[in-house]
Amino acid sequence: MKMLRIAILLTSMLALLAGMAGVVRGQSNGEVFVAEVDGIISSATQKFFTRLFDVAEKDSAALVVVMLDTPGGELSATREIVEVLLESNVPSAVYVSPRGARAGSAGTFITAAANFAVMAPGTNIGAATPISGTGDDLPETLAHKVTNDAAALIRSIADERGRNGERLEETVREASSFTAVEAVEFQVVDFIAEDLDDLLQQLHGQTASTPAGEVMVLTEELDVRHVGMNFLERLLNFLADPNVAFLLISLGGLGLTVEILNPGLIIPGVAGAILLILAFLSVGSLPVNWAGVVFILLAFALFALEVIVAGFGALGVGAIVSFILGSFILFAHFGPASPTAPSLRVSLAVLIPVVIALGGGAIFVWRSMSDSRGELTIAPSEGLAARLVGKIGHAVGEINPEGVAWVDGEEWSATMEGASIAKAGAVIRVARVEGMRIYVVSASEGPRE
User: Fold this and answer.
1) Residues 167-217: tens digit of each pLDDT
2) What count of Cα atoms within 13 Å lies in the side-chain half-sphere of residue 52?
3) Which of 6, 138, 215, 262 is the most exposed place for a label (fewest CB within 10 A)?
4) C-alpha distances in Å from residue 247, one per residue of 293, 323, 327, 361
């Protein structure tokens, strides 16, 4: 009997110790990771979220706090971030802050997916109704399909986190938006915090549900580690802006055009190529309309042709129209829209100065090149005609009937007179000039009367 009592006592002590160990494992005692996410939700944001929670789990963080201020963003990136939040073994809190911040569109999904959804006073959340890339409402059938998908996603998040699914679904179906006070009242978020210290104080002792089980969050006297984006993530985040994308495409196209018109300058060509690569990296993070990109690049091609051919005519007008049209439709979207994306368009405050600057610059460059060739009129007695008519040169390539000729130390767009052909290297004579094009004959032919 005595041995039985001892065995029971030992068993009870072991059970008590196991229970205490379980409680210890269920408590979070590491650092508090704090990160700021500001701006459009993009692939760069998603990569940052993934790295943040990977590091937090590796370092046994007690809590990850994301201070959020966003108008929305990419659907694919939003889904990935929601998955990270729901699958994390480290408790998470999304804090919509500072005062005046918002968790719009994609931000609504992200905030709801955290273990603790918190808002600062004077913030708002919601307005997750799907819209087109131009900010307009979608056609009825398309809107119905996209809205149902978005509504299903936010309902599943609400079920997982125990939030008010009905009110969250309103943000999708009716574009509802709630103040911080209303969001707490409707159980869309958990509570309001004045600042980070207040948030941590209110979270102390609360329990978070994670895939690893229930975890008690103990935040008192914990160190706070601020985690920021690395250089690549910051660069990608900076590029994920419609105005930045537009400027990069415009300046990149301009650089290449200057290099084409003035071969050998090198710097404009190299700078233009780098800017265009960054531009494509930028539009890869945004719901861009590639027709707009093509129109903008076509504008620079038309301008180059206008300078090479002659005069400010149809090609020049086409360049201006193409550039303006491309600028306006660069982020216009005519197909299925993302339910998490904000309204994107190039700001008029950026568009108008760029159009004026590039238009004025184009005219200046064209006139400067004309002046450098001594041509502002085509009269045979002065200007370019007086300079070139009768000059001897050679064909750079075959002129049949058009090609390029080297005359007076420069390359010229050339056309053979009559039905003759000039082989590469053949000696030619300038017979007449029209605009910026020279008309040539074989040097063996005498001057024409």
Assistant:
1) 999 988 888 899 999 999 999 999 999 999 999 999 999 999 999 999 999
2) 29
3) 6
4) 12, 12, 10, 15
Task: Compute the average pLDDT of residues 112-117.
Answer: 97
Q: How far is CA 51 from CA 37, 44, 58, 111, 230, in A?
A: 13, 11, 10, 18, 10
Say which residues have a Cβ less than 8 Å from residue 283's Cβ, sequence separation at least 6. 245, 249, 290, 293
Same fold flag, 21-232 and 383-442: no
Looking at residue 228, its amino acid is G
The string of DSSP codes covering 211-239 is TTEEEEE--TT--EEE----HHHHHHHHH
C-alpha span between 111 and 113 (Å, rounded):
5
User: Would you state the structure tokens that stand for residue 83, as one six-digit string?
Assistant: 């998955």
CATH 3.90.226.10 fits 21-232, yes or no: yes
Look up the CATH architecture of domain 383-442: Beta Barrel (2.40)
User: Does the predicted model carry a pTM greater than 0.85?
Assistant: no
Residues in the chain: 449
Q: At 387, is the pLDDT very low, low, confident or very high (cuts 50, 70, 90)?
A: confident
Within 13 Å of residue 354, how many CA atoms lie on the same side as its CB? 23
Strand 124-126 to strand 32-38: parallel, antiparallel, or no bridges (unpaired)?
Answer: unpaired
Contact by Cβ (8 Å): 419, 443:
no
Phi and psi at 428, nearest 5°, equal: -130, 165
